[in-house]
Write a structure and sequence with these properties.
Elements (H helix, E strand, L loop, with lengths): L24 H7 L40 H14 L3 E5 L2 H8 L8 E5 L4 H10 L6 E5 L4 H7 L4 E7 L11 H10 L3 E5 L4 H4 L2 H4 L3 E5 L13 E5 L2 H14 L5 H12 L1 H21 L5 E3 L9 H7 L6 E5 L3 H10 L4 E2 L9 E3 L11 H6 L6 E5 L5 H12 L3
Parallel strand pairs: 2-3, 2-4, 4-5, 5-6, 10-11
Antiparallel strand pairs: 1-7, 6-7, 8-9, 9-12, 11-12
The chain binds pyridoxal-5'-phosphate.
Length: 401
Amino acid sequence: MATEVETKPQDTTAGDAKKKKAPGFSTLCIHAGNAPEPATGSVTFPIYQTSTYVQEGLGKNKGFEYARTQNPTRMRLEENLAALEGGVGARAFASGMAAITAISTFLKQGDHVVCSNMTYGGTYRYYTRILAKFGVTFDFVDTADIEAVRRAIRPETRMLHLESPTNPTMRLADIAALSELAHRVGAIVVVDNTFASPYLQRPIELGADIVMHSTTKFLGGHSDTVGGAAIAKSKEHLEWLGFVQNSSGAILSPMDSWLVLRGIKTLVVRMERHEENGRAVAEHLARHAKVRSVHYPGLPSHPQHALAKKQMSGFGAMMSFELGSFENAGRFLERLKVCSLGESLGGVETLISHPASMTHGSIPEAERNRLGVTPGLVRISVGIEDVADLLADLDQALEAI
Ligand SMILES: Cc1ncc(COP(=O)(O)O)c(C=O)c1O
């Protein structure tokens, strides 16, 4: 009976004949961190909705003292996430931004960060409006361009923050090559793996030190929770992240931890359908007369299609496409019936957004256009509905142009 699964990252020491075969990714999604609750055998691990724990005597407790510091439901999710990303451990936070904030405490005054110039707007805002006040400096560069990253890295660079694919233009960063560059100066490589999920991309295996997620997206998968996580490759980084989690307190709640743990159980089947629908939608849009271009790493026309094939195991459900003008985008978006206009991504339902006026609205127009976030650009997070319904909905809305 499979009740407990060995969830440690695979030991790659050669010649260990007794080495157990590591479980497959689907098995990890379902079983890592999900051993039955010991008191009752409950197959689904409970939500420990408590703030504190009764202690047996002075200095005598069951390893649980106060729920900001230890919560069993959150710890189970952390165990699961570490297994999926191949890290030594994970820490779950109140949101993706709380995870990024915790990771940023590896930095101090005088340190320099190289960051993707198409990073999530909230990350850009946090770095430039908050962290910069504390004497950390930044260079935002096109991380699809290895030479641009090489030029930006300096001896005092302490962190390389990558997002791959980026939002909304779906540019990729070569995680292995860029990790090597950053490590030469001793910088930590952080990869925001929210768009890909560990099903499609495992940055630690490619050389990253820390992977972060907005668990709000594909990991939760049902648009019903906000959360974040940081997964570390080294014990030292994990210990610091745990210290920060407890000290600054932006913990993921027991209920949200449980929702993400539950969502991950179906990550593989959801991602398979996201992928199937994503490819079909991208190919359909690429053939459509009203669509000027499609940005999707799975299309051979994508400038980094070869890199996508090398570092990802699929191409996912995120893409953007060009309708030529703000008016065209508006007419199209107003006519949609199955696809919903909304700012998030990664849920079972198809969500469409208009980056120039929504997620990227705070970037000055000229800069937006330079980055390819044009007034006619529309982004889709393709859901897992019947693909025929999605294609029909997109077609009828495109007729409005
Ligand atoms: C790529 C990426 N990283 C981080 C975040 C921030 O996550 P959260 O909204 O959970 O704080 C988001 C949110 O949309 C995102 O898309």
